[in-house]
Amino acid sequence: MYRCTQAAQSMEPIPHLKEEIKSLKAQSASLEIRVDSIVSLQLPNNMQQPRLYFDPGKMELLKESIKKHGVLEPILLRPRQDGKYEVISGERRWRCCQALGMTTIQAVVRPMSDATALEAALIAHLLSDEISLIEQTESILGLLSLRLGLSNEVIKTSLYKLNNSYIRGTEYVGEFDNQQVAVIGEILGEFGMKLASFVSNRLPLLNLSPPILESVKAGRLSPTNAVLVNRQPEEFHVPLISQAEGKTKGDVISLIKATVKSREPPLDKSSLNTPTQQPTEQTKEQPIKQSVDASLPIEGTLHGASIAKQIYGRIQRLKDQVSLLEKPEVRERLTQIDGLIEEIESFRQQS
User: Could you give the CA distance from residue 241 to residue 321 in angstroms, rounded to a whole number?
Assistant: First the structure.
């Protein structure tokens, strides 16, 4: 692990790459490159490229702009041994030029290794005005993976643990060493983020179910509302997506309550007309036994489903105790619980 961090330190500094990519807008020493000699960035299978979502509507607007004004900013390419070029930055512009039948495009050509090309592509993606929060989160993880030498899944799980240790004020024990923790802070800081907000607000976006994920990428559902919908049983996802479009967070919370309530089984009224039975000694003991069972500590020998059921029951009993829930020390612990649940949800990606 230490060797991976050392290797990351020998790579080109991220601030330098950021400035170089930003300077493309004012780049005058660009070349005319044939559109048909350009291909998408080709990297080894163990390097995860930025996932680009090409919104059809926005692509049409970009094509119209290029028709009227041409390509105002050169794209960034790296040369290949076969005489072709790979796109590092500017794939949307290149694809639009292809669709318009243009023969050449303005480009800056820079020789780059696979690692530098991937890092430059990720940074260019993060600096794009068109990037979604999901794509931004994926690109940040890609940068962290490249610099730390760890897989995305290991990084996600370890970030939850690291953040929870900060919340609790306890010593962090996990995959990251001190140098790697510093690298994480530097990368997040470069793009105006902090660990707590990245873990709480961004990582949950990567656990969205496929229909919710597509709705966010298409702009039909805000990331905040998407996380709310995703926390509901899967059977509610599609109906909630169609109704939550364009609504505020408060509206979506009310919508979720109404939707879940409407699908609850109706009360069996026939049971109300049955004669009241006198409680036996056994039934008298049941409520007492249930309350005692609910107060028992969760044993490590219980199955996961049983543990989850006990936790859910305890939270249900707390939800109406408003004055208790408003205490700062209680809110702090609820935040810790939320972080732990997000950490558990991240394991779904590894199963």
Answer: 31
